Amino acid sequence: MQTTYFWIGLAVILVLLDLWIVNSVWRSDKTLGTKAGWTALVVVLPFVGAVIWSVAGPRGVTKGPSSPEHSKG
Prior knowledge:
By secondary structure, the protein is an all-alpha fold.
């Protein structure tokens, strides 16, 4: 029974990681085709796609905070 919880927990972590990757890809400054390709890779092959993205994925977020007040500490 505990092994089942382990795999469920691992699957939840993988899904959250993949959602974070897809969000990061779509916030990058790459072309629409590149974004769609990375999204398809991560959705079709979640673990392998995450590993490949961590090595070769797009970097740089182009959209910052929504207002100057939001970024004040």
